[in-house]
Amino acid sequence: MKIFHDIKLVAKIKKSLPYLFQLAELESSRAGKIVM
Question: Per the structure, how many domains does the chain have?
Answer without folding.
Answer: 1
